[in-house]
Amino acid sequence: MNQQSDSWTPYYQKTLEKPHHPRTEKALGYAETNARRAIDCGCGTGADTYFLASQGFEVLAFDNTEEAIELCIKRFKHQPNVRISQASFESFDFPPTDLVIANASLFFADPQCFKQTWQKIENSLLPGGVFTGDFMGPNDSWADGMFARTCPLTKTEVLALFKQFEVLEFNERDETGQTVAGIQKQWHTYSVIAKKLA
């Protein structure tokens, strides 16, 4: 994410006590690997990281905002199976993993580097490993880049990313609604759970 940390403050305040995303738990149930490692991309305040660590995973969590990293370092300072780093999708070194979580974070990947970013994600997943995350569609209010640099994709472009996967769940949202911070906007997103083929 490339926003200044102060623009994320209301979001972080609202999500500090928020539980993990239900889709993260679903994705965990689909994984068919044994390494027990997960990567939480754009970890925010660490809700998904906390859940995965509680399930015995080694979790590598990263975010591009200093505020999120400071919050997570405090939250996970006594959990040796969690490693926190300040990084972007473009700079993070994706190691082999069972699970990649990218809930509402790939929206803010650099569109100029997205092909390489996705290749890194795909390459990091072990056969039978699972990706779960969201992509921004072209009808989203933020797709024009006025709020922040974003990486909108069409439905065809999103589905084309998963040639080496079995798509287990695919949901499109195209409607007006509020953000966690209470801002009204048009949402256009694609949410995916997919298992990498052996």
UniProtKB/TrEMBL annotation:
Molecular functions (GO terms): methyltransferase activity
UniProt biased composition (Basic and acidic residues): 15-24
SUPFAM superfamilies: S-adenosyl-L-methionine-dependent methyltransferases
Region feature Disordered, mapped onto this chain: 1-24
One Pfam family recorded for the sequence: Methyltransf_25
Annotated keywords: Methyltransferase, Transferase
GO BP annotations, alphabetical order: methylation
Name listed for the protein in its UniProt record: Class I SAM-dependent methyltransferase
